[in-house]
Amino acid sequence: MKEHGSNPFIVSTKKLPKSIHHLFTEAQIRLQDSDFLRFNYLQTKLPDAPQSIVISSQNALKAIVRIDANYFEKKPCFCVGSQTRKTLEKHGAKVVADAPDAESLVQIIDEMYLDRKFTFFSGNLRRDVLPEYLQKKGILDAEIVVYETLPQPIEISPQPDGILFFSPSGVKSYLLKNTLSNSVCFCIGQTTATELKTLTRLIQVAASPAVENVAKTCIDYFKNP
Questions:
Q1: Domain boundary among 149, 181, 207
Q2: How far apart are the first and last CA of the chain?
């Protein structure tokens, strides 16, 4: 780790908004942000009247809106992430429940909504937690893949002091052309951290799964050693 005040060099594995760039600039931390993943949004046929919709990522939501901007209007939705909830509501969805991760959403469904049938929209690299649970309970009406996640690795030099990771796929893409060495890894959640646990002990996880929280965790780490 760099000494306090020596301008650490941080790499983000996804492009960050200007407001987050400003936080790093204020903290005198050098930031390089690049998209280590690219997404192929599919022109998939959407079911007309799903009883309930499950959205586990912002990319699934974006893919559906690209097909039909009004698709979520008045439809009951369950989602992972507070930002996903906000975006769904902007598109007229009736968000029944949201949770910070798939495991928490499974618990909510298990306790209150086993009388429903669910259509699960996902990417090609989705986790198994939600679809396997819904299938096991006999309440999965359909699973529809609406986007593909593809690696877009970039070689980084010099070795960064810290790396911001936002998904297991992002970790894998980064490692195609780089090593972790002694870089501290800052993760958006435990699922992403798990991808790293056999490779390094230098892992910090944001208190809640939001891009800004990953950035703030990194800044706090280097400015308050």
A1: 149
A2: 9
